[in-house]
Amino acid sequence: MKPFFFGTAERRLFGIYEPAVAGTSGKRAAILCYPWGAEYLHAHRTMRQLALKLSGAGFHTLRFDFYGTGDSGGELTDVDLIGLEADLETAIEELTEITGLTKVTLIGLRLGGAIAAGVASRTCGKIDALVLWDPVISGPEYLDQLGVIPNAQPPLEVEGFPLTERMLHGIRGLNLSALTSKYSPHTLMLVTERLASHAMLAPEPAERETGQLPIEFLTDAHPWREESVLFGTVPLSVLQRILNWLE
């Protein structure tokens, strides 16, 4: 495990690099994209376990804190979707430089999944595979889950995390279904919590249009929830499904 800082002096990012375990192929690389806010805190242990399992499976793995979160530079009020996507693009450049590999796998959880999908839709030539784990599909639906009242105006706070006007505007405009035709062909979406928005991405097979992304529904813990932290729960079946699919 190698903790380090990367990015620029103006936008300093903290990451942890897990090299592929000796004796494995070491020919693939993966970047983990965290959720936002309290969900980041709750999912931290699960994402660490996923990074270790990927390393053991031969992946050079990078997990990092977006600017304004965790141990990266900036303040909580500096976070917005445009900046989050720019940070992920910086992380892709960093990991390819460290490893000498030309492509990476992106694995995003919750809002991290939406960020990964957005970046993958624009930089598909650099993406080997894309894993979306309970990604945010609809911005308004996500805000409702966070307890944000419709038409609420900043300043707002969600479980101690400020929701700025820029961040709120970006989230309200999120629509993952608009990106489905731009995904890498090698894409896995895993869902452990069924939501109304999934109907936009996974209609009945007879009604499915070209480019729509099928979803795998699994039954396991939701690592972004507080109870997962309280009971030390790690969704092992989801981690194993990701590893099996990436083989």
Task: Set out the fold topology.
Elements: E1 2-7, E2 12-18, E3 28-33, H1 38-56, E4 59-65, H2 81-99, E5 104-109, H3 111-122, E6 127-133, H4 139-145, E7 156-158, E8 161-163, H5 165-172, E9 187-191, H6 198-201, E10 216-217, H7 226-230, H8 236-246
Parallel strand pairs: 3-4, 3-5, 5-6, 6-9, 9-10
Antiparallel strand pairs: 1-2, 2-4, 7-8
Helix pairs in contact: 2-3
Summarize the structure.
With 247 residues, this protein is of the alpha/beta class. It is 34% helix and 21% strand. The protein has one domain (2-246): Rossmann fold, CATH 3.40.50.
Keywords:
10 strands; 247 residues; 8 helices; two-stranded antiparallel ribbon; eight-stranded mixed β-sheet; Rossmann fold; alpha/beta
What would you say this structure looks like, in words?
This protein has about 250 residues and is an alpha/beta fold. The protein has helices at about 40-55, 80-100, 110-120, 140-145, 165-170, 200, 225-230, 235-245; strands at about 1-5, 10-20, 30-35, 60-65, 105-110, 125-135, 155-160, 160-165, 185-190, 215. The chain has one domain (about 1-245): Alpha/Beta hydrolase fold, catalytic domain (Rossmann fold, 3-Layer(aba) Sandwich), CATH 3.40.50. About 35% of the residues lie in helices and about 20% in strands. The protein has an 8-stranded mixed sheet, sandwiched between helices. Strands 7-8 form a two-stranded antiparallel sheet. Helix 3 (about 110-120) links the parallel strand 5 and strand 6 (about 125-135).
